[in-house]
Amino acid sequence: MEKILVIDDDSALAQTLKLYFQSKGIDVIVSGTAEEALSAWQNTQPDLVLLDVQLPDLNGPQLLAKAKEMKLEGEVVMITAFQDTEATLHALSLGAIDYLYKPLDLDDLDLLVKKIDLRKKEKEKIDKLTYAISETYKPKQIIGRSKGILNVVKAIVQVSKSPATVLIEGETGTGKELVAQTIHYQATPNEPFMGINCASILANLLESELFGYEKGAFTGATQRRIGKLEYAGHGTLFLDEISELPLELQAKFLRVLQEREFQRIGGVKNIPFRARVIAATNKNLEKLAERGEFREDLYFRLKVFVIKIPPLRERREDIVPLVEYFINQLNLELHKKVKRIPRTYLDALVEYDWPGNVRELQNVLRRAMILTESEVLDFDLRGLSRKNSEKTATSSFDIEDGTPKKLVDVEKEHITNVLRYTKGNYGEACRILGISRPTLRKKIRDYNIPVKS
Fold first, then answer.
1. Could you say which DSSP state residue 191 is in?
2. What is the CATH code of the structural domain delimited by 406-453?
3. Phi and psi dihedrals of 296, rounded to 5?
4. pLDDT mean over 281-309
5. Once rounded to an integer, what is the mean pLDDT over residues 279-287?
6. Is 377 exposed, middle or buried (0-12, 13-18, 19+ CB in 10 A)?
7. CATH topology match: 3-131 vs 163-310
8. 3-state secondary structure at position 32
9. Where do runs of H (alpha helix) occur along 262-381?
10. Third-level CATH fold of 163-310
11. Cβ-Cβ contacts under 8 Å for 326 (sequence gap 6 or more)
């Protein structure tokens, strides 16, 4: 404790406190009115403020509220008489940490100062071991500073200037729909954005969802229904998981792209199709086309402008900004006030491979936020380590098609993971791998493995 501000119009009590704390080597400032106190508080930045509940110009809670508005710092302890209980409780609700009754007991005051000193040291320790969360938050933003994400943003800017068809490729959970929405709102913000997931609707219902139908087109069609193609207008039609579109429907949709018109089911009138098409997939459409599982001519129609979103494990520098973004989002959604995350947790999040990508990260943080009651995020790291172990057990197989990897690829991947785990420490890496330092250096050169200096 270095500096205390005493705010009390009882000059005898204020002088007693000043002499008492000065005898302990603590600098003491005394103010008798709220106006003087706010000025002294702002200029001296005390560690502790002893604030009387009743002052000549304002009461204690009113002064504390003004101090909070001015963002003045320092722990506040109320000095109160027994009849001021209501005002004291109000002050505690505004952020005062404790209260003392008059006449003051100096032993109680000593204990309180020691408790505040201990609390300050604990806070400094937490600040040192945790990462402060930036409070900047804007909804539906593409978050990241990696080269991969910057390339995605650059591609969005380029394609937004034209009505070209876009194919977005990326693993599950990478944010393909967000990219599609960003293109739409950059290009045609006042037009409809119509999205449909081709995997979530039965094949016989998918056609009517897309094309709509006329009254009497089939049993149960009691009235005309407008489809997504028509509702999209001059805006955007987003087809998620396009690889799941049935082959017979692919042929019909191909004609829409070629002729820029369609008919409702059971209709005879050609309806112009004016929207931009954005398709998204987590599969390799080229390989599916080679195997006859996806129409090659439709694939060529869709790949006019391709945007590839890299998985989260390939852009680890984006994890910290994403953590900040989601914590701020979840603070609003769950009415929490999480402001810091332990660095050990943050390191674990950066090291984890995120097979579910950004969506998995969001869900992990959501669960942690629900369980956290303080300003410091808290969650169980064992789930991440267990999932990483499971991934390691199957890492010799290609994630996309389940085929075995080449031995050299497995070895390169394992050495890269060990070097990442040891933060580039060659000695520790050699111990884990069971090889000599010259052998490790040779393999790093042979496999062209990037190593942080």
1. S
2. 1.10.10.60
3. -65, -40
4. 95
5. 95
6. buried
7. yes
8. coil
9. 285-290, 296-302, 319-334, 343-351, 357-371
10. Rossmann fold (3.40.50)
11. 361, 362, 365, 366
Of 252, 310, 308, 257, nearest to 280 by C-alpha is 308
Cα 339 to Cα 129: distance, rounded to the nearest angstrom: 13
Q: Is 375 helix (H, G, I), strand (E, B) or coil?
A: coil
- What is the amino acid identity at position 129? L
98-101 and 236-240 strand pairing: unpaired
Domain ranges of the chain: 3-131, 163-310, 406-453
Of 73-87, 167-181, 242-256, 398-412, the one with minimum mean pLDDT is: 398-412
- 327 exposed, middle or buried (CB, 10 Å; 0-12, 13-18, 19+)? buried
The helix (run of H) or strand (run of E) holding residue 13 is: helix 11-22
The one-letter code for the residue type at 324 is: E
Neighbours of 8 (CB within 10 A): 23
Q: Residue 453 corresponds to which amino acid?
A: S
pTM given for the model: 0.62
Comparing CA positions, the residue from 65, 22, 92, 37 lying closest to residue 100 is: 92
Among 3.40.50.2300, 3.40.50.720, 3.40.50.360, 3.90.1150.10, what is the CATH number of 3-131?
3.40.50.2300
Structure tokens at 138: 């804007």
